Structures are given as C-alpha cells and as structure tokens.
Amino acid sequence: MHRYFLSLICLIILPLTAAAKTLQMVTDDYPPYSYKKNGSISGICMDVIQNVFGEHDYDFNVLLYPFARAYVTARDGENIFQFCVARTPEREELFQWIGPVGPSYEGLVALRKRADISIDADSDMSAHTIGTVIEDVVDQHLSLIQEELGLMLDKASGYRQNIRKLMAGRIDIWAGNIFVAFQLAEELGYDPEDLRVVYTFPDLHKDFYLVTGLKSDPDLVKDLTRIFDSYVEKGGYEEMKKRFIKSRAFGFSEQ
C-alpha cells in the first residue's frame, strides 16, 4: 500500500517538475534568424538557444507572432521570453537580458536598378519612402528622428510584406536587418542580386538577445544567464557567429 501511494505521488510530481522546465517563448518571422519550417521554429537564434539549453533539461514552447505583438507579450508578461531582440539604450530598462543569440546588422536596402538612391548621411533619407516594421529596432531608431528630418516612414507588421512592397515599387527603401532582406528576397522568389545595401547603422550592429519582462522570476533569469555566460566564455557563440556571417556574406553587396 505504501509503495502504491509513493508511486502515485511520483506520478503527480514528475509532470509538474517537467512543466517547470519548459520555457514559454515568442519570436517573429525573421529568417534566417527565426522562422517556421515543417511546423517547427527554426533559424540561427533557435539553434543557439537549443545548443545552449539542450544539455540543461530545459524544453521550449515557442509561438510565432508579428514582432510588435511578441515584443509587448514578452515585455509585459511574466516568464515569457522573446528572441531575437536587439539591445538598445531605449530598451535596456524594459527587459531582463540573456544572451547573445545572434549577430545584428541593420541598414537600408534598395533595388539595384534605383541608381537615384544614394544615402551618405541620415539627412539623405528624407528624399525616399522607407518601409519599416513596427517596433523593429530600425523602426524605433528612425521614429526618433522622423520629425526632425522629415522622414517618410511606411510602417508594416511584417518583413515579408515590406520586401513585396519594395519589389513592387510601393516603397523606395527596405529598412531592417540586412541578412533578413536578402534571405526573404530569395525565399519569395526574387533574385537577391537585384538588391543593394545603400546605408548601414553601425550603432545598431550589435547582437540579438533572449529577453523577458521585469515581472519574470529573477532566479529563473539568473540560471539562464549563468548557462548562457558559460556558452559565451567557452567560445561557442563567437564560433557560431563566424560561421553565420561567412555563410551570409552576399548580404553585404557593394553599395
């Protein structure tokens, strides 16, 4: 009888223990960093997270949202994690930061045939319609100087939508991560060689992070940070970043 009750207690406790190890995550459609493939979330950021936490008994429940929705969900929720999020001064106090999970290279991309588009300084951007994604790091950056420079920002909810608008001539410039622009163009059936980088934002060339809101359990965040720090200290992240940048070099076509 005692064995029966002991076994019953174990059956009750074990699922609860397993559930406590499942991380609730959100991300957006952001290839090659994060995207849905064969019903699962794939991409370089997901690969990093799996490699880092795979040996530490953490599982993942990942949902794919538009970026703005994922951003607000993680920021305002409790124990909800988002990737891939660029770290900026404006965002610093809104989240608890864990990572990094991938390299960020932000800029402006135009059609190669648009020889009339030449941008050497922020002030040159005002002559063109720029497509941004709501709450994306470049959208936030340009929104801060929009009124001062008279920028024409065409805001959308997704990156694929903006690539289609660029190719159709509905916007002059695609704003965001350079790798994403070239990857999406290829996935949507366009020739990446038809694109060129016309401007970059070096101050935004940092890393993407796994983040969670200020309401999240600090002990959980501390444990995840410890695991990530170990991964970085052992050189795992730098090795991944070198391989990734080498494989995506076409994204830095000559302006």
UniProtKB/TrEMBL annotation:
Question: Could you tell me what this protein is called?
Answer: Polar amino acid transport system substrate-binding protein
Query: Domain named Solute-binding protein family 3/N-terminal: which ranges?
Result: 22-248
Pfam family name, one: SBP_bac_3
May I ask which residue range the UniProt record assigns to the signal sequence? 1-20
Q: What is the lineage of its organism?
A: Bacteria, Pseudomonadati, Thermodesulfobacteriota, Desulfobacteria, Desulfobacterales
Q: Which SUPFAM superfamilies match?
A: Periplasmic binding protein-like II (SSF53850)
| InterPro entries found in the cross-reference section | Solute-binding_3/MltF_N (IPR001638)
Membrane spanning stretches: none
Q: Which UniProt keywords apply?
A: Signal
